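Hello forum,

I keep getting stuck at the same step: I have a sequence, I want structure tokens, and every attempt I make locally crashes halfway through. Rather than fight my setup again tonight, could one of you with a working pipeline run this one for me? It's a single chain of 297 residues.
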Amino acid sequence: MLEYGTIAGVFLIEGITMHTYIVRKALNNNVLTAYNDRHEEVILIGKGIGFHYKKEDTIHENVVEKLFVLRNEKEQAHYKELLSYIDEQTLNTIIASTELIRKRSKALLNEHVHVALTDHLVFAINRLSKGLAIKNPFLSETKVLYPFEYEIAAEVVDLVNQSIGINLPEGEIGFIALHVHSAIVNKNISEVNKYSQLVTAIIDMIEKRLDITIDRDTIDYIRLLRHIRYTIERVASGDKLEEPGKIAELLKQEYPLYYNLAWQLIKVMQKTLNKPVYDAEAVYLTMHLQRLDNKHK
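Reply #2:
Ran it on my machine without issues. Output:
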């Protein structure tokens, strides 16, 4: 998790507690690594601190604007490597974006967001500068599944565009929304991406099996999508729904097409997540499928 204030040393100036760090290495003019009092390596950010402080110097907290801990050694190495390719304006913008996410979400963010978001934005900015664009196939689903994260991501994209003078496409809002969600719920971005891809695959499968094109603006689609999301989250965490009495048998008889399709979708979930799915999920999924398809007839 991000920590804003774990310190290497403490001393008093006129009765005021002042925290200090021991400088390890300057990464650029505004970023350096240092040790805190637990000998953890921390990243310190502040205007000019990388230029003014050298190895083994003591740095006081009053000149530090931002601090975070990267406990994973591979992430530390990757973040330091990224910094060598980033100009000062871009780095300041990415740092400001991370701070925006922290303030808007009011969450204790997973420390991985520093590396993952920096990596993604550097890649997106470089790609855009070369006239290249990557289509986001999960944009509409992401907007529905993670509306709060999407709202924050839109602010991040606006900040980046204004600060650097570029025009990141709307698809980037969806990609960054997944990074925001990853940081808030403390899940690796690869896991979040896997869930998003699974949701999209399930929606595609529903359209093909029922031979329909789902209107992405309808309330039934939104309900279905969110139900699928929470089904996936329940399966992943091992939570179990109570099966509503004899409804399963009734649905199997009345709506065999939707009931069988529900189980096909569940098998896809089971295979992707490598976890069992309880029977009750098929009941509720059948109801959503019947309601959705009925609107297309």
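The two ends are 50 Å apart (CA to CA). If your local run keeps crashing, start a new thread with the error log.
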